[in-house]
Amino acid sequence: MRRSIDDHFDDHPVDDEERPPASWAVGLSDDCEGCNDIRVVLTLEEVGRPGAGVVAHLSADNARRLRQALAAALREVGEDPGH
Length: 83
What we know:
Strand content: 25-35%
Structural class: alpha+beta
Number of helices: 1
Number of domains: 1
Strand order of the largest sheet: 1-2-3-4
């Protein structure tokens, strides 16, 4: 089973030579033989280089930890972390 949840591009300008724009995608997958369970899949890639990125298979605990880290970063810069 594979299911896409959301994907988008980061906010770097396209012409930034030091930091090429990236894309992120979040999905679900149960096809990781070593994981033995459904995982939240986070993919980060440079725009225009599909298949050359990094794919993280996150357990529910690690997905929650990532969510908490993003919420903490948003609070740190004075933004509402949402729900």
